[in-house]
Amino acid sequence: MSGFNKVVTSYEQAMEGLQDGMTVIAGGFGLCGIPEGLIAQIKTMKTKELTVVSNNCGVDGFGLGLLLEDKQIKKMVSSYVGENALFEQQLLNGELEVELTPQGTLAEKMRAGGAGIPGFYTATGYGTPVGEGKEVKEFNGRPYILEESITGDFAIVKAWKADIFGNCVYRHTAQNFNPMAATAGKITVVEVEEIVPPGALEPSQIHTPGIYVNRIIQGDFEKRIERRVLAKEQGEG
């Protein structure tokens, strides 16, 4: 990496500096738009005691689910347990601390963290276990709870295309949590399908400006489907 060129050529370079006990914010929703190569690198590094912030924790044997196999995750801040039996097992056994957070609140926690806003009020979760122990304030007669924003030591993100300066474009629903996650890391690493030269991306189409990005790596993606459901043909039982 030199000057404004943020491209790295190995996953070791991409995740250099990750240490035990750090907080990692990961983009993705289910298995859509996940930085699978960066997750696999964390698995290889055997980094432990991690706090991971992501909508969910992948599935058994893939995505963030890989990091549960060797108990690399100490705490998971997420919205959805999903199709992950190991996640459920470790949660019920008390081996994994889980902070369940509504999806919209989780997205806003990342966005606010990236914007330098320490907290915000939301009506979501008031009167439920989500709101227990949190400050309550009324606005126009409606109660709201105070939620703190989130930042991480690392943010790992999946994009469709990026130029060498780190300007990123996401594709369709793979955008999901990625733009918010990209803003909230002290070090943001983006895994992309294609790296293009400066000027190749239409400025109005850029979702994440390069100012938020520290490192870019081009990866190969398996793009699994979390659950495939097929319609039965007429006459099938």
Structure, described:
By secondary structure, the protein is an alpha/beta fold. The chain has one domain: Glutaconate Coenzyme A-transferase. It has helices at 11-14, 36-45, 66-69, 85-92, 103-115, 178-183; strands at residues 23-26, 50-53, 73-78, 97-100, 119-122, 136-139, 142-148, 152-163, 168-169, 185-196, 215-218. The strands form two sheets. Strands 1, 2, 3, 4, 8, 9, 10 and 11 form an eight-stranded mixed beta sheet that branches. It has a three-stranded antiparallel beta sheet with strand order 5-7-6. It starts with 10 loop residues before the first helix and ends in a 19-residue tail after the last strand.
Short description:
It contains six helices and eleven strands.
Name the CATH superfamily classification. Answer: Glutaconate Coenzyme A-transferase
* Overall number of structural domains: 1
**Roughly what percent helix?**
10-25%
| Distance separating the two termini | 59 Å
User: What's the CATH topology label?
Assistant: Glutaconate Coenzyme A-transferase
Number of strands: 11
**β content, as a range?**
25-35%
CATH class membership = Alpha Beta
Sheet with most strands = 8 strands, mixed
Write down the overall geometry: globular
**Continuous helix count:** 6
